[in-house]
Amino acid sequence: MDVFDGGSNQRPKIKWNRKFNWLGYIVLAIILVVIAGLFALQLITDYIWMDTLDFSGVFTTILTSKLLLGVAGFVLFAVGTFVTLFWIRRSYLKHFQSSQLPPLLEKRKIMMAIMLGISAVVGLFGSSIIQGVGWESALKLLNHASFGQTDPYFGLDISFYLFVLPMIELVVFVLLGLSIFFLLVEMGAYSVFHMYRMSRSAQLHLGITLGVIGLLLAGYHLLQPFGTLATNQVNLFQKSVVEGLSYTDEVVNIPKAYVLAAVALLMTVWMIIKLIRGNIQSMLTPIAIYIGLAVVGLGVSVAVQNFVVSPNEFAKEKPYLQDNLDYTRAAYDLDDINEEEHPGNNSLDTEMVERNAGTIDNVRMNDVRPLLDVYNQVQTFRTYYEFNDVDIDRYEIDGEYEQVFLGARELDTSSLPEQAQTWVNQNLRYTHGYGLSMSHVNNVTAQGQPEYMLQDLPPEGVLDISRPEVYFGEQNAPNVITNSEVDEFDYPSGDENVDTRYEADLGIPMTGFNRLLFAINEGSFRMFVSDQLTEDSQLLATRNIMDRVNRIAPFFTYDQDPYLVVRDNGSLVWMIDAYLTAENYPYAEAFQGEANYIRNALKVAVDAYTGEVTFYAAEPDNPLLQTYENIFPELVTEEIPDDIRSHFRYPTDLFSIQASMYGTYHMSDLEVFYNREDTWQTPTERYFSEDIEMEPYYTTMKLPEEDEEEFILMRPYTPKNRQNMIAWMGVRNDGEHYGETFVYEFPKQRNIYGPQQIENRINQDSEISQELNLWAQGGSDVIRGNLLAIPIEDTIIYVEPIYIESNNETSLPEVKRVVMAYEDEIVMEANFDAALEAMLNIVDSDNQDGGQQDDPEDQESEPDEQQDPSQPIVEAEGQLQEFSELFDAYQEALSEGNWQEAADIMSELESLLEELDLSTETDMPDDMENASDDQSSDDAEAQDNSDN
């Protein structure tokens, strides 16, 4: 009865366990289906999105390569794991009796299932590694183009180091890592009861694994000599002065690698022989020899570097320094830089200014940071509009070549009133920004604000904008649906809003299965059930232009400063510079991490209205670009429209990298290069309220050998640890001369003031510093703009705008003064023209005076108009005394912050000036007249502050 009761008590429990197991299987299956479904959903929606932009070939090429590599990785890792586990189990079954083993180990079906499960997990892990890391290297290996240039030591084409070697190293490292993993598993398994001593099967298993590791180590060492050409690391502890192959590499490291490769092969053969003979103890001997030789090789490398190279480093490294110099120049495209001497003469005069009117008229009087604040306060009109950035470019305006600022007015739906942030408004109605603003770089209004060339809604000005809608831009805008039952808001007009409909067809059609797929992908049930969507509705996805191009071609590196371009047909496009970078370029110094090769071979255009993306080949002959074209034949377009090419800008990031490298690699004398005797560096400047490294800047200027002005990107150089200017580097941007880089070097025996020296002199000028401090004490912030060095023929001038900004959130930065420096002279005036005139009065006084002197014949013909020397001067002295007292009272009022009183005093001064006789005004001292002009501007400021 007890047996019956016990059995009856257990039967329901068994049934419950089985039900629970089936429920677990169902839940697990559902989870797997959901994961697979989400993965498939992402692939399908990505493909549809890429297909609407005609880049489906890029998607399928990448997906196919990842799948093939993933399958290969899965098979390699899974099969290797299964064989290892199977062999371990078999060794256990052979070595132990059944009573000594866990019962589970003898259950073949269960063990097979467990081993297959573990193998699948390891296989998935290996698959993700190989397909994630290796797909691009594999495609480059199979489709690479030749550089047509070989390295000086092995005589191999550069493409071997950039495309072939990385893939071979990847395969060797993966196999070596996998083999070491298997060896650790085997060592753990066979250490039980010292099976590695007694089990023939265990010994054979360990021996084969060690043999594979030995072969892979030999392969690794055979690859090491090629790696010496792309690093300055000569051993674990030391670096060489040479980038690439060095004396220690050639004499010690390369022979050592070949020796260790041979030892690894002999070690493998030795272990296999000893394994067959059953002499397990002696299998450790070749391992010890290998480790010993590796340590000895390291010691020899350290000794040679310390005791042979270091005492006479230049002589030993001289043959390799030239290769380092030549190949670094080639890697950064510094080979063809045109080097010229710049005399740095004191030759500025009126005639030179007239000859270079185009350069003078395009000197930048605004800076991007304060200008962006002005755009966002003056040209947004509604709270939901925002200018994300202000860019600089050049245009033909009424036949004149002019440099301009411009920015797009984008839409930020998060700034809508809270009650208006509905699903319909955020997804169907408020879909795009509108228009742009454009302003002169060199002109400001009387109030110090930018002088606009395009402004307002809809945009009006010097250019006709046919497509002002900005659906795609720099904002992180959410996905929207166009052509629904809801009209799209276009722009505000008075008390009403103007509506529009999207007319392009590059969105994703919201019809059929697409609607369900993208509703799930967007996580929006409303999208699936909304009756506002029609058969014409389109989903505009990934509207941030940087995310857009990265989603299409993630294998390129993109400049983070896109800029807006107005095409000839009035449409707007965003231009993005794409960089092609590589590692392992022989003998080249790295600019970031291990990357030591860079080119701006691609320009990307993204239409602000349609979202169409076009990759233009800026350097069709570049081998790395040709390799990508072989991989993705439909990706790159080589025919570039003229209105796109005319707005190509040489990117500042690339120019900064090249300029930094050239600061060291301009030296051609090897001994000077070795000692870094003539290193150039980036100067510093005072920007806002801190000293920062000077960034490259665009300017419009006429080069000495050219007849017309052109768009130039430039940057000055100063010697290392000094502040005088030693040279300046520029690159041309226009027409067939695009990308031509040049350097003008100043005489080393003369001092040419550098940017920081000019900044220091501005700080030390008593009159300028006093006036700036006065403004700063009056409830305003003084903002120092970018200091620009402007080369004009054989001389150079410095210009810096000074901004005044009130201490409140809604203040507008205003250009109130312009500082100009030339040689030993510094002037500060209300605007650029006044500053230039004041400077010319100083440096070209003869010419200025000559233009103002009367003709002697006229003087003789009008003797009666000469002033009588005996005329009393008492009245003039009284007037001067009165002016002096009023002026002192004005300054005292300003210093105490009594703006209204200061304004009243200045009004009285102006009234007195108006009462003066014309002849009295003419005879007034120049310094008094200039002071009056300057203080009039101060009075306007004071009046503004008093009103506030």
TrEMBL record:
Disordered: region residues: 845-877, 913-948
Alphabetized InterPro entries for the sequence: UPF0182
Main localization (coarse): membrane
Family: Belongs to the UPF0182 family.
Cellular localisation: Cell membrane
Keywords linked to the UniProt accession: Cell membrane, Membrane, Transmembrane, Transmembrane helix
Membrane topology term: Multi-pass membrane protein
Chain ranges passing through the membrane: 20-44, 67-89, 110-130, 160-184, 204-223, 257-276, 288-308
Start-end of Acidic residues biased regions: 852-867
Protein name: UPF0182 protein ACFQ4A_18400
